[in-house]
Design brief:
The structure is a homodimer of 232-residue chains. Chain A has 232 residues and is an alpha+beta fold. The first copy, chain A, folds into two domains: 133 residues, Jelly Rolls, CATH 2.60.120.10; 90 residues, Orthogonal Bundle (Arc Repressor Mutant, subunit A). Helix content of chain A is 35%, strand content 22%. Chain A has six helices and eleven strands. In chain A, strand 10 and strand 11 form a beta hairpin. The first copy, chain A, is globular, with a radius of gyration of 19 Å. At the A-B interface, strand 5 and helix 3 of A face strand 5 and helix 3 of B. Chain B binds a DNA duplex (30 and 30 nucleotides) through helix 6.
Chain lengths: 232, 232
DNA sequence: CGTGATCTTGAAAATTTTCAAATAGAGTGG
DNA sequence: CCACTCTATTTGAAAATTTTCAAGATCACG
């Protein structure tokens, strides 16, 4: 029987890829695989000693719920992403599967021990955390766009890039992992406004909808652009 | 002559506080102090091998400029905060002083070397990065509020907490480190809307303005709340 | 005590939200 | 496989909010 990680689809990209074969297997023995269906919770805000995990397949959302019960999506996690707070005494946010997802889950104590044992792992997580921070800031930049059309366009572009295998190139065609409500939630818009923005993008021949969730990018260059600016 | 760090105001909170006295001094010798005035640039997006630094005094903003020239504030850095990307080949964003600021600056190579030499430093930076990520997500949550009044209120609360010494307790009175334009920028609102929101908050006896920049919190509990929800 | 920049305020225009209803899709049980 | 049902999405029109444009007030500073 081969290594537990031998067939792992993210073995070359996840944080643990910096470990040697043996080190990785030993870490894998401390963890376990887990599958979540759409809407299932990995852990909830307030959980003590919440686990941490590498996402192997699927997609997750990180959300917070304010005092009035409104949910806010704070981040999306894609395969090879690491999820979990190693230092906070309890989880700050909920983490929920957007679709069927597979994770490699570790107890926080085990991950902390691994961090001590393998300095390279700490570096790898620091690097990943830096990337997460960058992604979070890009998300922040989305909200700066003045018009709903631009916000939705920028989000589509971000999702297309996340859906693509090759980094930095958006997938030409992909399925939205988010409902209209979830998209609106991320952009501070209502469901109806998101829907209207998509209609407008389609009328402008920037995208082509394929059913409710499928998106084809006809003119990716105009997605991130302002509504007006491209009249030239 | 004592240690270079002996009088450092953030010596107990910055990432380097996990080092021993000697380790810290040796790191300090690799770095240098630098003072920036309001509006001065620490480094710019695209800089190769941009330095990194711990903020000792003052405040910084991390900004990006989109293709149409609009600036977007992505993060605020407060004393003891660490700034700089250790892994990206070039800086993603501009970093600018909001007011007179003092920093402890390191060449990226030196910081990377220190990371290898002191695993505890990698952990400390990972922890700090996790906190930055959390703050960035909180900022993201600001934009979810539907009304301008709530957005501005939430931002004021965040700034009051940053201005306070005691964590988790907002300063009752403080000076805004940001112009109206910068606040609007962070919230996706115009200068005028921010100004009107402040006027409304003042009319509602939630805050009291002291000149253009001074803010006194009269009823902090109502700052983060929805406009309507608190009619009871 | 000017002077330029920042901030406030007003009114019209544009955009978004809200409320309401119709349509399309996905999943289920017959 | 199809009809049914529940949910998600789209669309419309009025109401509310925000932006834009314009002008006056205030502040900081030389």
């Amino acid at each position: 029987m081969g290594s537990a990680c031998a067939g792992c689809p993210v073995r070359d990209r996840a944080a643990c890829s910096v470990l040697s074969e043996e080190e990785r297997d030993s870490l894998a023995r401390a963890g376990r695989m887990r599958t979540l269906g759409r809407g299932e919770l990995l852990f909830a805000a307030g959980d003590e000693d919440a686990a941490c995990a590498t996402l192997v397949r699927g997609a997750l959302k990180v959300t917070s719920v304010d005092e009035e019960g409104r949910e806010r999506i704070l981040a999306l996690i894609h395969p090879a992403g690491f999820i979990g707070e190693l230092f906070a005494p309890f989880a700050h946010h909920d983490v929920v599967a957007l679709g069927e997802s597979e994770l490699c889950v570790f107890a926080r104590r085990d991950m902390n021990a691994a961090l001590d044992r393998h300095p390279a792992l700490a570096r790898a997580l620091l690097r990943r955390s830096e990337e997460d921070l960058h992604r979070s800031r890009q998300l922040l930049a989305l909200d700066a766009r003045p018009s709903a059309r631009d916000k939705v366009g920028s989000l589509l572009l971000a999702l297309a890039e996340a859906a693509s295998d090759s980094p930095c190139h958006p997938a030409r065609q992909f399925d939205l992992p988010l409902t209209r409500g979830e998209m609106g939630n991320m952009l501070g818009l209502t469901i109806e406004t998101v829907s209207r923005a998509l209609t407008k993008l389609e009328n402008d021949r920037v995208i082509q909808r394929k059913g409710a969730r499928g998106i084809e990018l006809l003119d990716p260059a105009r997605l991130g652009q302002s509504d007006e600016e491209r009249v030239v």
